[in-house]
Fold this protein.
Amino acid sequence: MPIRQLRQSSRTSERTPAKLAARPWQYWFGDLTNDARPREVHGVSARDGVELALWRINGGGEPVLLLHGLGSNRLGFDWPGRSFAEWLAARGYDVFLPELRGHGWSERPRRSWDLDDYLTQDLPALLGAVRELSGHAQLHWMGHSMGGLLWFLLATHGEARAVRSAVALGSALDYRPGASGFRSLLGLKPLARRLPAVPYGALMHWLAPLFGRAHATPDAFNVQPSNIEAGLNRRLHANAFETIPIALLEQLSSAFEPSGLASRDGRVHYLDARHSLDAPTLLVAGSRDPQATLEAIRASASLLGREARVLELGRSHGCRDEYGHWDLLLGRRAPQEVWPKLLAWLEQHAFSTPPLP
């Protein structure tokens, strides 16, 4: 498959008046999508020709793919000063951070896209690229939010032999149980259908100065405010989010219908697995996650079968604070309370497959 090396300098954004008008807080919160830390970044052609960015921090060992969630980018896993990707690479893993179409450095197609495009166009190309670049026939998958959901769909309805083990953080397959905050947004569907996309990234950027303050509550949808530093909270919202196409939101909204999440044409209902989950999979649940609730994650694990395990994080499980959605990755205590547990899972499921010749 076509893979080419990209230069970070070739993607550095110019601070034009239009750019600053859209993201005015970059002077204070930075433009972390163009940070200068040394990274390999490869261009990978999706099956339909869309160019995808694949970042790499090579620690020399088994490959681990870290996949972002809905309307976000690689920064959740690779935050400056609190990078789970760097932490894993320092412990000997070959870490890959793909950005799906329309996210981060990846190309944003003119036409809209949805989960079907991620599953049939992007992921096969990205998995193939990781195998080719790493020289290993298998890899470990760690996905946050939608990045974990995509693993569930691939594992039960696609081709997942390349995945040795998986971790899904703040991810559910069955969103029907529990009071997910997404459910309260369903009433906005008639209004949203008039738009081609929701400028979620720009909205979060504009609201960022309000977050991490005593009077602010909207940030609780993404984080448990007490479990993340105020400054990091603001920088996160100013940098880590992207525009979301309406077609993708329409498909995801089917997760709250009686039959659950469905394919674009409605013919595939993902709660009805075509094949069993074969790779050991850890579902990590935050005690106060308003997006993927404890009830939804527990129900999803039951659906996925005997290879699925649930790890709940919060005060009642020995943590010093409750956990929301993004603080599973970036919380002030995540490096001590979460990351070692993810490393232990990788070590428990290490593979002995030799590198590809």
